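Same chain as my last thread, 161 residues:
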Amino acid sequence: MNLKGRNYPEIERELAKTEPQILIELLDSKSIKIGDSAAGLLRGSQAHRLLISSILEKRITTKFGKIRAKYILFSTGRRYPEALKAYLVFLNDRNDEIAHNALLALVFWGDKRVIPSIKERVKAIKSAEDAKEFERACDALEKSEPTSFNSHFKDDSGIWK
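reply #2:
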């Protein structure tokens, strides 16, 4: 399957015929069009448990692949209890941006048992500004006030309840 040089609709038509496991592998694609198209198709699929398994087994290896995977998972809210472990994998990623990206989901998940993991991870954060975000996440979890972490996020569809 050669998708180089094709536009989004052509890529999406071709990828729509692809098995979910291959789409998950394509999340790591260097091509923004291919990786984003795979993510869009996975978001509308029923392959979320397969995605979670791939995250837990650390088969998604690139920064953009992990961000795409988190985006897909975030759209499911708390529907899959095993997703909490996937967010913790992202929290413990060596890349601070990936770890930071997991915070919103962890805060809105509302499980206070993750606070020690966040506090441990903050010790390795390179930026003082980013470290404050991790501390704000812990504070929001301790107070059970997720909107104090991000007042702009609205759970209109109720997927985080």
